[in-house]
Design a protein that fits this description.
- The protein is mainly alpha-helical.
- The protein folds into two domains: 1-33, no CATH class; 37-134, no CATH class.
- It is built from eight helices and no strands.
- The model has no long low-confidence stretch (mean pLDDT 87).
């Protein structure tokens, strides 16, 4: 997805994105890009903090990315013959408890912002389903 291109590219490409699309798209991509020199937990805290102040279109991209990540995990858990393999995957980058902390905290921040209530509802349902499958 376009929102991940800047952090996955070998060199910064925001100028190229601005040229191909526009300044607003480049700003959203920049906002949604993870910093490379920050720990996983600090990066997630930065994202949670962004929810309170980020421009509305960037908030939508951030929220949809979180939902997409949760749904991907749910799919893996539902499809897995061996849930232990999926759970060991979840232990990487923040661990199971860290990921659940992030998803809950993101939902709480989005709820406080009072934007995109339908998306918030879908996020909360997905987080509860993930918790039920894990615990």
């Amino acid at each position: 997805m376009l929102h991940d291109t800047n952090e996955r590219a070998k060199k910064p490409i925001l100028a190229e994105i601005k040229h191909k699309f526009n300044a607003n798209v480049a700003e959203i991509v920049g906002t949604c890009s993870d910093a490379v020199d920050v720990s996983w937990k600090d990066q997630k805290q930065i994202r949670i903090d962004l929810v309170t102040s980020v421009e509305k279109s960037a908030l939508l991209v951030l929220s949809c990315e979180v939902l997409s990540n949760i749904k991907r995990l749910l799919f893996r858990l539902h499809a897995a013959r061996n849930k232990g393999q999926v759970l060991s995957y979840l232990d990487m980058k923040g661990g199971i408890d860290g990921k659940l902390w992030y998803y809950r905290a993101f939902c709480n921040a989005l709820r406080a912002r009072k934007e995109y209530p339908d998306l918030l509802y879908e996020l909360e349902v997905a987080v509860r389903e993930l918790e039920n499958l894990i615990y």
